[in-house]
Amino acid sequence: MSDEKKKGGWFSRLKAGLSRSSSKLGDGIGGIFTKKKLDDESIEELEDLLITSDLGVATAAKLTSNLAKTRFNKDIEPREVSEALAADIQAILDPVAKPLEIDRTKSPHIILMVGVNGSGKTTTIGKLATHYKAQDLKVVLAAGDTFRAAAVEQLQIWGDRTGCEVVAKETGADAAGLAYEAIERARAQQADVVLIDTAGRLHNKSDLMAELQKVIRVIRKLDENAPHDTVLVLDATTGQNALSQVGTFKELIEISGLIVTKLDGSARGGILVALAEKFGLPVHAIGVGETANDLRPFTAKDFSRSLMGLENASD
Ligand SMILES: Nc1nc2c(ncn2[C@@H]2O[C@H](COP(=O)(O)OP(=O)(O)OP(=O)(O)O)[C@@H](O)[C@H]2O)c(=O)[nH]1
Q1: Domain Signal recognition particle SRP54 helical bundle spans what residues (predicted)?
Q2: Which of 25, 44, 87, 141 has fewest C-beta within 10 Å?
Q3: Is 117 annotated as a binding residue?
Q4: With a 6 A CB cut-off, is 126 part of the ligand 1 pocket?
Q5: CA nearest 85: which of 288, 310, 292?
C-alpha cells in the first residue's frame, strides 16, 4: 500500500474513532452559527460548548477570543468556525505530538507503563508490542501488575498473539523483582524493547506510588538511565479527571509522555487539548478501539481536523 493510501486509511479510522467528539462539536457549532453573527452571545455559547467538550476553561477562552479578534460582528459560517478552531488547536497540539520511538542502541529500551486501574495499560502494551514487532524489533513484556491475576492473563494473551515473551510470576509477587528479571531476560536474548506493565490499584495511593518508585529504583541497578520512558496511560472517558491523574502521578514519579485511550467511546476528545495546554507533556499515541490496529499515531493536524469533523486538508 502506498504511504498516501495508508495515511488516508489512518485518517478515516481516526475520524471514525473521534466521531462522538466531532459530532458533539460539529452539531453544537452548526446550531450556534446558523444565520448568526459572531457576537457576544454566540461567543459565549461557543465558549460553553468548548468547555463542555473538555477543552478546558482557559483554552476555550483563548480560542474564542482569537476568533473574535478577526471576525467580531461579522457573519460567519459554521465551517469557518470549525476551520479556525482546528488551526488554533493544531498550533496547541503541534509541540506535544511525539511518537514513542525505540532507541535500538539502548538494548533494551525500557518503557514503564503506568496509570490507574482500567485506564487501558495492558491493552496499550499489547498494541505497542504489535507495532514494534511489525518494525522487526524484539520485544519482552513484563507482567508487573502482579496484584491482579486477570491482568497477567490478559498480557499473556497479547504475548501469544504477538509472539513476544512474557515474564510473569504468581499473584502478589514483587513487581520490582519481576521487572528486574524481565530486563535480564531481554538482555540475554538481545531484545530491543521491554514493556513493563504495572498495577493501577493497590491498597491506596501511597502504596501504589511507593511500588512504582521501588520498580524504578530496582531497575536502575541494571541501567542507571532506566526507565527510558515512563508513559502514563489515561482513559479519555474520565474527562477532566485525567488532568488530576497527571498531577498525582507527576508529583511522585517522572512522567515522560502520555497515551490517551478510549477516545472512540467518548465525546471527550477535547481533553487532549486541555492536557497539552496544562502540562505540555508529549502525547505518543491515542487509542480509538480495542484491537491492535486501534492505537493511532498522534499527529496534531490529523487530530485537530478529526476532532472538528473536518476532512484531511491533504486529501
Ligand atoms: N473502546 C476502547 N476500549 C479500550 C481502549 N483501550 C483499552 N480498552 C478497553 O478498556 C478495558 C481496560 O483496559 P486494560 O488494558 O485492562 O486496562 P488496565 O489499565 O491494564 O487495567 P488494570 O489491569 O485493571 O490496571 C479493556 O476492556 C480494554 O479492552 C480503547 O482505546 N478503546
Answers
A1: 14-93
A2: 44
A3: yes
A4: no
A5: 310
List the one residue out of 270, 220, 283 whose CA is nearest residue 52.
Answer: 270
**DSSP code at position 311:** P
Nearest CA to ligand 1 atom 13: 120
Write the residue with the smallest CA distance to atom 25 of ligand 1.
117
Calpha distance 290→275 (Å, rounded): 23
3-state secondary structure of 94: helix
Q: Is 78 left (phi over 0), alpha (psi -120 to 50) or beta?
A: alpha
- The answer to whether 121 and 197 have CB atoms below 8 angstroms apart is yes
Q: How far apart are the first and last CA of the chain?
A: 16
Give the Å distance between the CA of 82 and the centre of ligand 1.
31
Closest-CA residue to 63 (of 39, 29, 28, 92):
92
**Is 194 strand, coil or helix?**
strand
Count other C-beta atoms under 10 Å from residue 308's C-beta.
24
To the question of whether residue 50 is assigned a binding role by annotation, the answer is no
Q: By alpha-carbon position, which residue is closest to atom 30 of ligand 1? A: 262
Tell me the pLDDT of the chain (315 aa) as tens digits. Answer: 344 444 557 778 788 888 999 999 999 999 999 867 889 999 999 999 999 999 999 999 999 999 999 888 888 999 999 999 999 999 999 999 999 999 999 989 999 999 998 999 999 999 999 999 999 999 999 999 988 889 899 999 999 999 999 999 998 899 999 999 999 999 999 999 999 999 987 667 788 889 999 999 999 999 999 999 999 999 999 999 999 999 999 998 999 999 999 998 788 999 999 999 999 999 999 999 999 989 988 999 999 999 999 987 654
Return the ligand 1 atom nearest residue 294 CA. 31
Residues 173 and 149: their CA atoms lie apart, in Å, by 11
**Other C-beta atoms lying within 10 Å of the C-beta of residue 246:** 17
Helix (H, G, I), strand (E, B) or coil at 220: coil
